[in-house]
Design brief:
By secondary structure, this protein is mostly beta strands. It is 10% helix and 39% strand. It has one domain. Strands 1, 3, 4, 6, 8, 9, 11 and 12 form an eight-stranded antiparallel sheet that branches. Strands 10-7-13 form a three-stranded antiparallel sheet, with no helix packed on it. The chain has a two-stranded antiparallel sheet with strand order 2-5. Strand 3 and strand 4 form a beta hairpin. The N and C termini lie far apart (80 Å). The relative contact order is 0.22.
């Protein structure tokens, strides 16, 4: 009986081996094999080099709002003739560093910023800047770009010193 049981178990084991399908042989791609590619970019670094400064604005008898702006082309002191801009003015200046010859998108965290006056007033600054720049590391590393802006000044705008921060951001597309 022991011999019969051993033979029976051997037969069951042999049948189990037969029931497992044989592994298929690996097959290679016919024709050209695909490649894997990746472009690795340096992290961007944004440095503020200079503040946006509108200079001094002397108000005349305004009857409505007038726009003051500073751009790379210069300063505009309204169109009514009732504002006089004096003193020096500058655009804000930034340097962005990253991978050479790569396009960089420039954005603002907000479309407008509130500049708060020392006498309780406020004006709303709308920044202006290029939408993109290309990093060029020849000479000084990185590329410089300017940020200007504009705001409305009206008859009810109190005198004072106005200030606030602007949040300019950069990213690879």
């Amino acid at each position: 009986m022991t011999r019969m049981m051993t033979a029976g178990l051997a037969g069951v084991a042999a049948l189990g081996l037969l029931a497992v399908p044989a592994a298929a042989a690996p097959v290679s791609v016919s024709g050209a094999k695909p490649t894997a590619n990746v472009r690795i970019l340096k992290p961007l670094q944004l440095t503020a080099l200079r503040n946006l400064d509108f200079g001094t604005i002397v108000m005349g008898p305004l009857t409505g709002n007038d726009t003051v702006s500073v751009t790379t082309a210069g300063r505009t002191c309204g169109t009514s003739g009732n504002l006089t801009c004096t003193g020096s003015f500058t655009t804000a200046q930034y340097r962005v560093n990253g991978t050479t010859n790569q396009q960089v998108l420039i954005t603002s965290a907000s479309p407008t910023y509130v500049l708060t006056g020392s006498n309780g007033g406020s004006v709303t600054l709308t920044p202006s800047f290029p939408g993109t720049v290309v990093v060029d590391n020849s000479g000084n590393p990185g590329v410089l770009f300017q940020v200007g802006g504009s705001f409305l000044i009206g008859p009810a705008t109190p005198d004072g010193v106005y200030s606030g921060t602007i949040d300019i951001q950069v990213a690879y597309p």
